[in-house]
Amino acid sequence: MKAAELRNRDKDQLRKDLAEGSKELMQLRFQKATGALENSAQLARVKRDVARIRTVLGEQQRASAATAKPAAAAPAAAPAETSASSEEG
Predict the structure, then answer these.
(1) pTM for this one?
(2) Tell me, what DSSP letter sits at residue 36?
């Protein structure tokens, strides 16, 4: 699965793919532990696919957060304390 293909999918489909990939990864790890895994390259392929899905989901979340909060990019300055108030007390 290529990242370009994943970027064309919506968040719900990506979450579904992530759940399926995580489940498949768990099954492959179990097969490896029991010695039943015939194709060890499949384990690496699924791990990479899950990582790609997580990366694309993160990109989409950051992109939506950046467009939703354009004013939040510049933080407001905190009020400065006066030296007189810190010396009292």
Answers:
(1) 0.71
(2) -
